[in-house]
């Protein structure tokens, strides 16, 4: 006769082992993605981050870094989508707003960029995005509105 407690323990051990293997695989892909990014091998970095996210679709930093890769590849829509994933999971993450603001600025959406920089600053008043917010150029109406907002 099989002991139910023994069966339960075996199942829990197997699940734990599987989770540990998945964490190891995730870390391998994630670390290789970071290394490929540093080497400016963006296509390879993208593939590594894709694999890491397939294993752990809730890992915020993997989306941040994959968004950074897509930004370098000038896939602005893809980068914004990755930063949106972070914001959907954690709306208090200033880095996601800051990075999305950078991409929006590159894509020509100055208002969106300013809104994201402002949100990053609200979440962390010491955040470095203040310098980028002041770099955004616009027409006279945009400048007047910025001055009315007093940059916050």
Describe the structure.
- This protein is globular.
- Helix content is 78%, strand content 0%.
- Helix 3 runs antiparallel to helix 4, helix 3 packs parallel to helix 5 and helix 5 runs antiparallel to helix 6.
- The longest helix is centred in the first third of the chain and has 35 residues.
- It is mainly alpha-helical and 152 residues long.
- The model has no long low-confidence stretch (mean pLDDT 82).
- The chain contains eight helices and no strands.
Beta-strand residue percentage = under 5%
How confident is the prediction overall: mean pLDDT?
82
> How do the SSEs run, as a string of H and E?
HHHHHHHH
* Unreliable spans: none
**End-to-end distance, in Å?**
70 Å
Global Rg: 21 Å
Number of H- or I-type helical stretches: 8
Describe the largest sheet: none
Tally of DSSP β-strands: 0
Structural class by sheet pairing and helices: mainly alpha
Shape: globular
- The amount of helix comes to over 70%
């Amino acid at each position: 006769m099989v002991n139910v407690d023994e069966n339960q323990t075996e199942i829990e051990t197997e699940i734990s082992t599987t989770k540990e293997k998945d964490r190891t695989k995730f870390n391998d892909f994630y670390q290789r993605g970071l290394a490929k990014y540093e080497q400016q091998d963006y296509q390879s970095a993208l593939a590594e981050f894709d694999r890491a996210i397939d294993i752990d679709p809730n890992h915020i930093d993997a989306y941040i870094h994959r968004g950074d890769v897509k930004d370098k590849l000038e896939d602005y829509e893809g980068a914004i989508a990755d930063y949106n994933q972070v914001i959907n999971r954690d709306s208090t993450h200033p880095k996601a707003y800051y990075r999305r603001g950078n991409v929006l600025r590159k894509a020509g959406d100055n208002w969106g960029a300013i809104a994201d920089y402002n949100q990053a600053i609200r979440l962390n008043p010491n955040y470095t995005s203040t310098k980028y917010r002041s770099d955004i150029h616009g027409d006279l109406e945009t400048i007047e509105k910025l001055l009315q907002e007093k940059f916050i």
